[in-house]
Amino acid sequence: MFLLEASGRHARLALPVGVVLAVLLPDSHGMFKPLAPFILALLVASAVVRLDSVAVLKAALQPHRLFRNFLISLGLLVLAPTLLVLTARGLGLDQMLLPFITWYAVAPPIATTVWMCVFLGFTAPIAMEIVVLTNILAPFTGPYLGGVLLGEVVPLSSFALSIRIGAILGGGMVAAMLCRRLLGASRIEAQRQRLDGVSTLAMLAFLVPVFDGIGGLAAGMPVLALICVGLACILNFGSQALIFLGGRLLVRQRGTLPEGTRSIAVVAGNRNLGLYFAALPADPIFSLFVAAYQLPLYLTPMIAGWFADRQNRRCASR
Question: What would the pLDDT profile of 264-296 be if each residue is shown by its tens digit?
Answer without folding.
Answer: 899 999 999 999 999 888 889 999 999 999 999
